[in-house]
Amino acid sequence: xxxxxxxxxxxxxxxxxxxxxxxxxxxxxxxxxxxxxxxxxxxxxxxxxxxxxxxxxxxxxxxxxxxxxxxxxxxxxxxxxxxxxxxxxxxxxxxxxxxxxxxxxxxxxxxxxxxxxxxxxxxxxxxxxxxxxxxxxxxxxxxxxxxxxxxxxxxxxxxxxxxxxxxxxxxxxxxxxxxxxxxxxxxxxxxxxxxxxxxxxxxxxxxxxxxxxxxxxxxxxxxxxxxxxxxxxxxxxxxxxxxxxxxxxxxxxxxxxxxxxxxxxxxxxxxxxxxxxxxxxxxxxxxxxxxxxxxxxxxxxxxxxxxxxxxxxxxxxxxxxxxxxxxxxxxxx
Length: 333
What we know:
Blueprint: E1 3-7, E2 11-15, H1 18-29, E3 34-39, H2 56-64, H3 66-73, E4 74-84, H4 98-107, E5 115-123, H5 132-137, E6 146-153, H6 171-179, E7 185-186, E8 192-193, E9 210-212, H7 226-229, H8 239-246, H9 258-268, E10 274-277, H10 284-291, E11 295-300, H11 303-308, E12 323-324
């Protein structure tokens, strides 16, 4: 069962079970339509969360079953991007291999044709110490401070353009470009640097597959691509979080970083392309896609989080032309 909660200039959000909606609605009207499916599914945590999560073999089977569904919805050169955290064995200070089994199961699913294009790491030093039992109570392990971001596709050559997600040049590189004076020749690494290797200003350097969401070294400038920084949701004064505080709403505890969505949306899609988030939470994906003029569809099973996400599209700077389905509306000012 699906219910469209709201729509905007570029997208719509449905409330309901993502697998059911994908099989019975999206596969009918959006088959091979999505250039990008980007999502942060419920992590395989041992403790049950409000946003819903399985663990163990149940989670593994559920995750693997997503492969043929996503495969059917992607364009031939489309991309699937999944953010997932580490898992730990229940009652043991031992890291689980479940997240790796999920990846292997997805790319080896014979009912789909997915392959891993590249892995990214999202490092966030502000994450609360976890797993708490083994980090803060027994003090046996270090803080689990990063998530995996897997980029998959049905083809070895999905649509992508890294020139759209360049990092700002470092100060030393800017100086080098200005002086046009550097040492050419063979390096100890055996790389042979030509005389013109660093002579051209390409507008920035190629992005890395590590997202340093906050600086690791205070003495070093963080050089994330502009579209990661501009969508940072670590700012506690952004419109969504400000309104949540005003209305005494507890926001989704595992919001996907808007900078990640912005990076992959610009890296892997163009204006007018379709983006899907099947586990939308507070609909960060829809918000970013709206700002970037990408068409989007989001699905969220938890009605509270779906309703809360309406706040994002009331941001006057967005001009989203928000239309809310009044049926069974929860009171939101």
